[in-house]
Structure formats: C-alpha cells, structure tokens
Prior knowledge:
This protein is α/β, with parallel strands linked by helices. The chain has 12 helices and 13 strands. Helix 10 (322-343) runs parallel beside helix 12 (404-418). It starts with 15 loop residues before the first helix and ends with a helix.
Amino acid sequence: MSEPLDPAGEAAAVDLAGEARRLDAADALAPLRERFVLDDVTYLDGNSLGALPAHVPARVDDVVRRQWGELRIRSWEESGWWTAPERIGDRIAPLVGAAAGQIVVGDSTSVNVFKALVAAVRMAREDVGDGGEGGGAVRDEILVDATTFPTDGYIAESAARMTGCALRPVTPAEVPGALGDRTAAVLLNHVDYRTGRLHDLPGLTRAVHACGAYAVWDLCHSAGALPVGLDEHGVDLAVGCTYKYLNGGPGSPAYLYVRRDLQPRFDSPLPGWNSHAEPFGMRSAYAPASGVVRGRVGTPDILSLLALEAALDVWDADGVSVAAVRAKSLALTDFFLRCVGVYVPAGRVESVTPAAHAERGSQVALRCDDAGEVMKRLVENGVVGDFRAPDVLRFGFTPLYVGFADVERAARVLARTLG
C-alpha cells in the first residue's frame, strides 16, 4: 500500500543541510566511507551494485600476479582456493544471523534458487513418503512470491516442471491463507526489490513450517543492510547475492544457506564434482559430501570469489555491526523521506516504500509518471539511483558509505529536477 509524503509545507526555514552536517558529525559509521572508492557523485544505487572497497584492487592484484602468476596450481592448496567457498561462507554467516558451517559461496543467485527450491520439494516429499507409505498428502505445490524479482519466478516455474508440482504465485501477505497439506515449498523475498518493503520472515517461516512445508528465502536486498536471523527463526534454506550491500563487485558469486540439521538430507539437483564426497576420486557414481559442501557444483570462480573475500574485510572494522548498520539505514531513509517532503512540490512524487520501520528495507522507492526521464536527469546531475518500469525511482542507502549530506543533496537535486 502506498504511503503519501508529508506536505512540502513543513517549516521552510528548517536548515536540512545543516542538520545533515550535524548528523554526519555524530555518525559512528561515517569513517567507513574512507574505505571505499567514491567521488563527488551521490551514489544511491548500492542496492544494485555496491561501491568498490578501496583495498580490493591490491588484493586482486596479488591473487592474479602472485597466487595465479607465480604459485599457479599450488594455490589451490597453498593459497586456500579449494576451501574458499566455505571459508567465505563463514564470513557472510554472521551478517545474516547464521552459525558457521551453513553457508557455501558460489554460482549465481538464480542457480542457488534452483538448488534450494528443488531440494526443498524433495525433502517435503520425503517427509510424507510422497503420499505413499508415509501416509501423508502428496506435496505437489510450490508457492512463489507473485511480486518477486523475475528470475526467481522463472526458476520457480522450471523447478515446478522438473518436480511435477503446480506453481501458485501469491503475494507474501496471502501466503498464510494459501498454505495447505499439498504445499511443498515456498519461495519468498525478504525485501521487495521494487518497493523496498520488508516482509515478515519470522512469521511467514513459522506459517510455512506449521503446514509441513519448507521455506526458501531470497536475501538479495537485505543481507548486509539489516538483521536477518536465519538460525534464530529456523529458516530452512536461503540464497543471496553479494554485489549489493556486501560490495563484492559485479557478478560476484552468490551464496546458499542450508540449515545444519537439513544438510544430510539436502539433495541437490546439480550434483557436480565439487560436491562429491571424493572430488578427486573421479568416481562414475555420485556420492554427496557431508555438510554444506554438498551445495557446491563446479570449479569455483576464484578471481571473483577472492575479490568478495577482500570486500568483506570492511565488516571487520571496529564498531561495525549489522544492528548499527540497520539503525543508520532507518535514520537515512527517514531523513530522505523528510527532505523529499520539504523540497519536492506536493503531489509530484509518492512513496511506495512503507513508512513503518518494521516494514522497510534499506531503499526508498518513489513513484512519478516520468520516472525514466527523471532518473536520467538525476544521473546527469550527479545523483545516481535507478529506474524500475513503469514509474518507480529507486534510491538505495548503503550505511557503510552513504551519509546524511548525500541524502539531503539527493532530495534537493530531485526537487530541482522535478521543478
């Protein structure tokens, strides 16, 4: 549901620019900005591609020149290439509320959605003996978020065909009422990519479990921006990308979370040699490795993988916690909405991002009729967000490097552009 902006009649004398300077001066996370390669552009598109951490080029240079150029094949062991997918998974784990040993990094989000969804259906059917000797109902239905990012829908449709399931698109709000004893798996987004709406991961996961199905969560727009609590809330399977709020770089590998107690039952539809119990045994018959390793498929993309590992170093800085990042995210988005309400002519834009903190991710989406052209002009004037058809301006707020002065300037330039 859309949220109208405050009227522009809020005290015109309010010195928002001065307030932004004061907020930046008091911001404990502000020094982290220096850890990124940034310029005078106001960059509010980290929900599509995160900024480059300043130390990553030197790390990648070492990977290319020394590890690959000098050590060559020895780097699989001596430089830790072979174990990188699990090692880096353990670095991501605390950012999404997971204990070590439950996340493996590799492949794309799309590939990991496919693995997770098919595996979820297989486990659901195993639970009831596929309607046979287990005595339960046939689990032959997959629910998918009807508002999902398109690729999730494409993958869900293919997974449904492969497993002989019916696919039912429903909104997250409709999920509790749509669940039944035929539901095998439910694929949901934690944060809606268009509107920035934060969905109720704990409550929806409980509802899915209550009907005996498995929950698969897409964390692309939440990991690194807000608390997720995978272990705390008993999430079964989750996937996410690393090039948004985790700043891993264009095309950086995605990750797959498999809850520890489900790992012995995780039956991947893509059983590659990297997930074999004896990957160098070259057996003709497949035998899955133990643990989350069975989520791997083929040879890891080492250059992108190790660039991501370097990017994650930013989270090791003193004082950086997901809770602190979330607090700043909410403060930034609140301030942006306030600045827009003051600067932008009344009725010119409408926020489709929920006002309630419990329902808001780390972006603000504004609807306006000429959004595509408006975003082009914003970019030309040094404010980078993005456009989503047909009429949405998206602004992403990455608290590690976005400040309150950025927010105030973006709203001011937006008002000038619309004026």
